[in-house]
Amino acid sequence: MAFLGFLEYGGVEILNEARTAAYSARAGLGLACTPCDGLNIALGSPDYTTPKADRAPWYDPHYPESGRVLGMLGMDIVGTNDATGTRSPTESVGDGSVIGPLRMAHREIQVSLGVLALDECALVYAMGWLAHVLKGVSCTRDECSGLTLCMYACCPGDDDGDVPGQDSKYLRHFMAVGLMDGPQQISLTGGLAGGSGGASTLTSGGSRQGVSGGSLITAVGAGGAGDCTEFGRSSGTGAVATGAEFTLVAGKPWAYASGIEVVEWVKLVKGGKVAGFDPDKQREACAEKQREEGPRCDANPHCPFPSNIPTVPMPVDKCYPTKPYDAWRMVKTVSPLRMPRQAEGVPWIRFDTGTKPLENTMVRFYQNLQGRDCAKYPPDDCNACAEVFIPWLPANANVNIDGRSGKAWATCRQTDPEKRFITTNRRVDLVGAAGGAFVWPVFPCGTGFCVEIVTSQYVTVGRDKNGRDIRQAIDPQAEIAIWYVPRFDMI
Questions:
Q1: Phi, psi at 489, each rounded to 5°
Q2: Cα torsion for 314, 319, 323, 324, to the nearest 10°?
Q3: Least crowded by CB within 10 Å, which of 18, 204, 364, 382?
Q4: pLDDT tens track for 341-361
């Protein structure tokens, strides 16, 4: 079962038991619970006082009742501990079947929360706020591709950041998430079918039912015992609570851990200069090497295999370079000791382009099982296991090539000082090996890598009056960093 103390959706904190416990204690509502001590530390040890003073996620100065919302408590989260693998075998004409490929279906996550407030007006506001947030309403929303859902796999009590380059061992991200149905108001007795059951049921000891809503709204009385899913009144005028239930759907079914920074931010000009870099020539040399040195089987002399088999030409992206270019090139070593062994992973590549664009940038990954120094023992160009080619990156941009969401985009900064807080997003085009269709890399198991990074030394910044390209050197401050993001089939 996932940890019930924290939930963030689309960058908005929905559930935080540390916050709720602090506000409840200050309001005189005694939560009979033993909250996760590591949660507040994992969140940066904030000192919660009041929703107004802390600018709690739900607080709105135009609605004073929002300051009387105490927060939410987790009742149940169902669907994070189920793998979504599915396969559709096709029956053979004879015995048996062709089992077909395994694919991962979408994931459905059912959430039950207890909503706690000092009075019924605040409770009604809290339910409306929750419905508003779950729609994914924001200035940059993308209703079709979804948002990000964050939670912890367990109480982050010993999440001391002992994995170099990783923020949290227990934080999980679900990508391409959207609301499937709800939220609906429910009674505070019982969780979702198939859930964790009794321990996750929100109850109120000594409560009285039927306050302006039948069994759906509970007035909190004294008493209560157990974990942070129970509460009781210790002083003051008490509070009211209700339950909320909703279902989210994740288009990307994997639970992504926090990324491990395997290549720290490094200036692209720190690499060596390569004159006439030509990836096509490299591939032609690799193909020739395979023909000459690769393993082959003896042909049948009585019935030789046709030697002139027609080949279907592969479409080449029009933005793929057709001529050699002068490049900056570096190779970085990623030790296998830094990589998780029992989880597959995806890359997350980030650039800061500086004041000039970047052209013909390529990142290649090579296996490095023994963790040898890739500068002393350079990888064979023919053995790359993944390649990302980026024809063009705009100037003044922060670029994300995110294998978690399967998206690549640039956030461009304005050069006008008066508009420095205005940014523009645009898609970044990616090209596959040899100019073919791009396929997002997935590393099936944790291993060491050699990472080759190449970019053009010069870029086109405009054209003169005769229509000729104006070429300039790239910004020496342009830099790159790479993360390896482990992912799991369940949380």
A1: -75, -15
A2: -110
A3: 382
A4: 888 899 999 999 999 999 999
**pTM for the predicted model, two decimal places:** 0.82
Residue 14 to residues 151, 210, 395, Cα–Cα distance (Å): 10, 26, 36
Tens of pLDDT, residue by residue over 455-482, are 999 998 888 888 888 889 999 999 999 9
CA-based end-to-end distance of the chain: 8
Q: Look at the block and give the residue holding tokens 């279907």.
A: 312
The Cα 357–Cα 472 span in angstroms is 10
Rounded-to-integer distance, Cα 442 and Cα 348, Å: 11
With b for 16 or more beta-carbon neighbours within 10 A and e for fewer, the 235-245 pattern comes to: eeebbbbbbbb
Altogether, the residues listed in the chain come to a count of 491
Four-residue CA torsion sign, 348, 354, 355, 357: negative
Q: What span, in angstroms and rounded, lies between the C-alpha atoms of 240 and 216?
A: 10
Report whether 329 contacts 422 (CB < 8 A).
no
CA pair distance 446, 342, nearest whole angstrom: 7
Residue 481: both structure tokens together:
């960093």
Q: In the chain, what's the furthest Cα-to-Cα distance?
A: 98
Hey, which bits of 21-170 come out as E strands? Answer: 29-30, 69-78, 85-86, 90-91, 97-98, 103-104, 107-117, 147-152
